[in-house]
C-alpha cells in the first residue's frame, strides 16, 4: 500500500494499517455494527496459537483480508476471516538479549508499507519481510544490544521514511530515533534524544559527558500529522535515575519531540519532567485530535503522561494549553502555565535531599504504556490508570558499565494504598484531567490498551484473561469473554464483506504481571490471537 493509504487509515475502518489505528493514534473506529445494544451476541470466531510463552503485547494490523501479528519470537500472517496461518517467520535474536530488557521479552507490533512487513527485534535489529511469503528482504543492525539497547516498540512509516525508537534508558543508553530507507534498510539519519554540548539543549547537562549515558529511550511509536509533516515521538526517563551525576533539565529526556520524518530535524519540543529522577518516561502515545478550546477549534496533541498530569499542547508549535492531574500526584503541586514547568513539592525536594520519600504516582506512572483511546465525538480519553506509589532513596552512582542496569537509587518499594483500588478504567476530559466516569479495579489494575468505537463501546483486557466491552457512556462492563491467558495487548476492530470483527492478543506478560497478586499463579502462559464477531441469528 501507499503513503496515501497510510494517511487515510482512520477514514477506512475496514483495514487497520498503522499502529494506533491511524497516524493520530486515537484507537477509535467509526464501525458501529457491534454496538451497546447487540454486544451481548459477540462470540469468538477463531483463535490461533502464537507458540510463545513470553507474553503478547502487540497490536495486530489488517490489510485486505490478511492480519499481521508479532511478538518477541515470531512474525505471523493470518487469513483474517478463517484464522488460518499463512506464514510464520521466526525472529532470530541472540538468546542472551533478555539480560538487557527491563520489563519483559516483548514486541508491540509491525509496520506495513509497499509489500513489506517491518519489525524491530529484541537484539536491536530492524527487519523487512515480504508480505506474501514472510521471507526476509533485508536486516539492518540498529544498535548493539550488549550496550543495553533493545527494540520492543512498533516502527512507523511516515513520509516514505521507516522510523524506529529503542529501549534501554534503565541501562544508561543514549536514546535516539532512527530513519531508514524502507526499500533497502539503509540508514538515512539518527536523531539522538540527549543533546550534545554543541547542540541546542546541550547546556541542560551540566556534568561533562553525562548526555552520553543520559537515557531518553524512545520505546513506543510516535504519531504523525501529514499536514504539518511532523512526527511526535515521546522520550523515556533520564539516566541514571539519580540526577546528581547529570544535573540540569537533561533535554530531551521525559519530553515530546516534534520532528521532520525526512531528516529527523527537531522542530519543537516540550519537556514534561525536567531533571527527571522518578523514571517518568514520556514515551506513551501522543494522541492527535481537534478540541474546541475557548470556542475555537484547535489542532492538539494529548498525552496522559506517566508523571500524573494530562497534557494538551498545540501540535503546530508545542504551546501548552492544559496540564492537570488525572490521578493522585504528590511530587508536583501543579504545572506553571507560563513556563510549562512542574512546581515540585517538599516531597520531591526531600527525595532530592537524599531522604527516602513516598512518591505519587509510582515509578510505573499514573498510566504505563497501555494505550488510551480518544473518541472525537465525545472528546474524552479512555484509559486504564494505576493507583500506586513508590519510595526510594538516592544512592551513590556506580561507574557506568555498558549493558548493566544503572539507576543510582536504593530501597525501591512499590505500594498500594490500603483498601483502595489498584487502578481505574476512566473516561477523562483532556482539558481538566477530570473523569466523567471512573470504574475502580479493586483486585488488580488493567495493563491493556483501550479501543473506542462509534458503537459507543470501549474494549479492553484484564490480566486475568477477560476481554471486556464497556458502555462508553457509563463505564459499565456489558460483555466479557475469558481468553486463554492474561491480556496485556492492544485490541483492534476491522471489517470485511460488511461484517465487523474485534481482535485481541492474549498472553500473560509485561511489567504489570508483577502486581497481579496471588491469582497470578492461576493465569497460564501461552500466547494466542482471538477474533470475535456477532453471532449469526
Ligand atoms: O526506559 C526504557 O527504555 C524502557 C523500556 C520499556 C520497554 O521496552 O518495554 C519499559 C520501560 N522503560 C519502563 O519504564 C516500563 O515501565 C515498562 C513497562 C513495560 C511493559 O512492557 O510492561 N515496558 C517498559
Ligand atoms: Ca523506563
From TrEMBL:
Keyword Signal part of the UniProt annotation: yes
Pfam family for this entry, one: PQQ
Binding site for pyrroloquinoline quinone: 152, 168-169, 368-369
Binding residue positions for Ca(2+): 237, 279
InterPro entries: PQQ_b-propeller_rpt (IPR018391), PQQ_MeOH/EtOH_DH (IPR017512), PQQ_rpt_dom (IPR002372), Quinoprotein_ADH-like_sf (IPR011047)
Cofactor: pyrroloquinoline quinone; Ca(2+)
Entry keyword set: Calcium, Disulfide bond, Metal-binding, Oxidoreductase, PQQ, Signal
Free-text cofactor note: Binds 1 PQQ group per subunit. Binds 1 Ca(2+) ion per subunit.
Annotated ranges, domain Pyrrolo-quinoline quinone repeat: 18-321, 358-502
Family: Belongs to the bacterial PQQ dehydrogenase family.
Protein name per its UniProtKB record: Alcohol dehydrogenase (Cytochrome c)
